[in-house]
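Table S2 (continued). Query chain:
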Amino acid sequence: MSNINDKIRQIAKETEPELICIRRELHQYPELGIDLPKTHEIISRELHKIPGLKIREHAAGGYGLIAELKGKKEHGKNVLLRADIDALPLEEKVESTYKSRHDGRMHACGHDGHATWLIGAAKILAQLTDEFGGCIRFAFQPGEEVGLGADTMIEEDKVLEDPKMDMAFAAHGWPSVESGKIGIVRRYAFGCVGSVTYMQAGDVNVRNIIPQDCVFGGTMRAVKREVLEKMKTELEKEIKGICQVYGTSYQADIRIHGGSVKNAPELLNGVKKSVADVLGKENVYIIEEDNLGGENFAEYSCRVPAVYMFIGIKPEEKEAIPGLHSPEYQFDDTVLAGAAAAFANIAIHGCMGELEEN
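Corresponding output:
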């Protein structure tokens, strides 16, 4: 397959300047939740430039997109590649020629990069349809930051069906992984943690009056859905007990979205090799520690075998960079072509049944 690897690398290199322009355009128009008209417009425009793609627009209740590319070989499996595309309600603090044009909104989690490398993978694969059978489906999902989009794409848009997807892949730009490298967590790419992220009670300028109301919220994440169910029950039980002691009442809105993202063990070595074939063995490695975070790619990974990767965005010369959801977050555009190449090779090997271990 070395010839294919060379082709993938060459097409990725040729596409890199275009991908950087796309990513920087998306960065200027960050949109929130599932209301992403400009994001949809840009992605749709780029997908329609790619020959052979069958495109479904306005998925996920409005601004998601689903594209499909069929291979020309007689037999093959079906592979889903997914990117989240929404932004965050943050004011960008980094000055650049492509800084956010939307006040109070920013691509501070790198979803502009995720969308772009998936477009890049489609551009590469469209030139290599002779090399695989089956089909490769590209899902551009809105709403990840607010726990939406994935279930709608699965339940209403049937993104995993007709034909049935055999496996799914996604990735995140990761500030602790060096640019040019890809880390793959052995077990849970996103696992278990709980935190209170906001609380509001009374007036900050009034010190001697007990507030009538207190509103607080946060997140709970767990590697198993049954643990989330138990956490929900125990939290509400605790709140109810406190209210009974102090003679007050409460209202609770506790929702469970998905669960953990567990990487399929039978796909790990095949994915690692596919990445190594185009980026080099020294640039892909297994991460043994579970990651504690949340991602509704769990909705896909609980239905089909899946692998979620961490694509490095930390320039080699820097010891550390601002983390995800920071107003100083910066995406490294030099990783786009390599990420697109990695996704393309994974998809080809997946279609040809060369990822799974029995």
